[in-house]
């Protein structure tokens, strides 16, 4: 089985990815130590590829066949004109009010914030716009960058989970914006759903990535 090296410093996210794929996913820090990547892309796709491409040359001298798996994900809120989007993990660090954020009139944040801080920022934006809910979409882009028998490959896959955000009480130890997001067709927030890993944006992107890797390995056996 092709080793999957996951670029993430988020233990919760790594566990979720491993549960979805149903196979071991190695944290890159076990092989390389911590690697810092400036996520200055203009899209989820660009940021995911930046991370995958940063790890690939560092692993190329250590391993023969391997695949780097990186992802970038976030919440796009219609009432905020698609923000926080690629700034989802840094949303609370944006020094601007809801109307300025809607207009894109802010300095891109560089500092990460806690999930609780980001949720409070989002709730404050809803309050400022006098809204109790808004159409929203979770987006995940998975980027693969790997090598098998000397052949390199690079690909990306996008998954989206449509729904809405609501004003709801925050809970301890929840992940991301999950306690505020209700998927389309449901009446509960996604953090309370047992089937989260079968409907999430991350599942939809990883499912495509997994199918791609199966096809690639099938081709490899025919060489």
TrEMBL record:
Similarity remark: Belongs to the HAM1 NTPase family.
Keywords: Hydrolase, Nucleotide metabolism
InterPro entries, sorted: ITPase-like_fam (IPR029001), RdgB/HAM1 (IPR002637)
Keyword set includes Plastid: no
Organism ancestry: Bacteria, Pseudomonadati, Campylobacterota, Epsilonproteobacteria, Campylobacterales
Protein name: Non-canonical purine NTP pyrophosphatase
Domain of life where this protein originates: Bacteria
